[in-house]
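step 3/5: co-fold with magnesium ion
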Amino acid sequence: KHRVLSGMQPSADSLHLGNYLGALVNWVRMQDEYDAVFFIPDLHAITVPQDPAELARRTRVTAAQYIAGGVDVDKCTLFVQSQVPEHAQLAWVLNCITGMGEAARMTQFKDKAQKQGSDHASVGLFTYPILQAADILLYQPHGVPVGEDQRQHVELSRDLANRFNSRFGETFQVPEAFIQKESAKIYDLQNPTAKMSKSAESPAGLINLLDDPKTVAKRIKSAVTDTETEIRYDRENKPGVSNLLTIYSAISGTPVEKIVSDYEGKMYGHLKVDLAELVSGHLAPIRERANELLSDPAELDRLLAHGAHKAREIASATLADVYSKVGFLPYR
Ligand code: ATP
Ligand code: MG
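step 4/5: write tokens
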């Protein structure tokens, strides 16, 4: 089996419907076909200021949502990044073969640093893509399923893998970016030209995986549409309605054209009521399972520790090879 690796930051109280339909659903599909490694990048989370108690809580909440959403810890490897020290260790070595100019070209840093106010951005935020390269290269994956926004970072991982291999000898598998083109992209319900995002300024346009049916209904009912009445898919002129159709289709598995013909002559309100019911019904068992997992944090921590142990078996072998190749003395 080819290996794949992916992760989502514990940077909010909950994953949202975009994370779920755009990423998690694909992960769940992949765990049968691939040797899948999923992790929670808490080392990455602290590149911007975090409240310690919140970070710990959010890490567990994210783990619970991965599992409740269908990640099966018996089929894949699921772990928390900080529990596998090899990530930070390999990142240091990779830092030392990355050029300043090369790191400075990463566009995500520019965006995120601007949000922080450039003088306040941390060095960690600057080296974020290099830690991400370490995350990937440690596991020798064949592919990294990511959104278009991560293409540049996977490209850097490939460059660093090739550079290390040619300087020190064949060590790393050079990973492919599996850009998930066919996967659903979900937009903000209040601002349907912007993607649904954990870092959105207001939660009004988000549906979170742990939202109760009342909240889901409220968010969908107040979703921004347009002044026409016709239900059809047109991203350009009708981004709001199109987004509702995308969500409907992704959850029900019904093609958009079929939904459009089913709702011919009906009003936006009908679509919204039905969609709210569909989404709530779909999220109910996920919310229930996540809450169940969160009610026993000791058991959840045990599952994660087991995952970290499995991950270290792979990661420590790669790191040992790297350390020896760069000339570090063996530690026994
Ligand atoms: P942030 O605002 O902190 O960047 P985010 O909501 O963009 O958070 P990420 O942690 O950056 O979430 O992304 C996790 C995964 O979810 C990635 O694979 C990303 O492509 C996917 N994803 C994020 N937002 C959406 C969306 N609106 N629609 C579909 N997929 C999404
Ligand atoms: Mg993002």
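step 5/5: annotate
Strands lie at 3-7, 35-40, 77-80, 143-146, 176-179.
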